[in-house]
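User: structure tokens for this one?
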Amino acid sequence: MSRHHIQLTADEKALVDRIDLREDLPHTVDGHQVYLANREPILALLKLLTARDGIPKHRIAYWIDPKLNSGRIKGSHRELFARNGSSGAEAYTHPHFKPYLRYFLYGADLPEQVIEEFEKQIGNPEWFSGSDIIALTKKTREIVRNYRMRDSTYADEFHKLALDAGLSASNAESVKKNAAEAIRREFKR
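Assistant:
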């Protein structure tokens, strides 16, 4: 278990075990049935986690803070769901919410070796300063190249990892932008 996974109670773990967190379902699996089966355990899990403040604050901020969404359309991730007609329970049970739920539970979806290399570069986040961001973004680009990360979603995962590591919103954004640029260059190869 990664140190970024949140500690779950037995009841929460039982609910997580009932949730299908896969984004890409095999063609033999009925996506609508997965959606229907996920509704109750997701809402129950979020209720339990919220009641005990079990989700790290920066992960909740990633969902609700517009400054942590640098997409073309401005607004928080939650606001973007609302603009598309999903708010409240509808947003939390929407199939596109699963990556956010996975982040709430487990942190960034990156290989453990990538996480270790990235965090080693940061060192103690309490001592991380503005001048350290240059070395970190260089290391991020190096990691993307070395692991041949070509999926554009990895940029968001580096953003989440930077937040998990305790970096500021602006530093996390710099990491994301550099990861995205390195990924674009990998696609050209």
